[in-house]
Amino acid sequence: MSIRPLDMQTILPQATTVSKNQHAAEHQNTLQQQGFAEQLQQIADKRLHQIQNVPKNEQGRVQREKHFKEQHANEQQADDNQENRKYQNHSNEEEDAGKDPSRGSHIDIKA
């Protein structure tokens, strides 16, 4: 299909318009991507500075775990205290059993 001179005269001015439209369409995609990236960045910054809400079901679990840890620590401390008391009582009994009332008051010297 050949182009006639008359068609060439009408196509040439339209070529610049078509070129401008095509360039604008390509540039519009880039602008949309940049705008979308900027929105995502703003959302990420907002979430970073925002306090996260804990769902109620997780909050209960956290409280139960905290209560369990405190209770376990208290029980462990009570067990340790009881063992220390037993050890002290046992060592006091040994000291009391080893003491003789007559010991330490006289010195025996043999020549």
TrEMBL record:
Residues 58-73, 98-111 have a biased composition (Basic and acidic residues). Residues 53-111 are annotated as: Disordered. This is Uncharacterized protein.
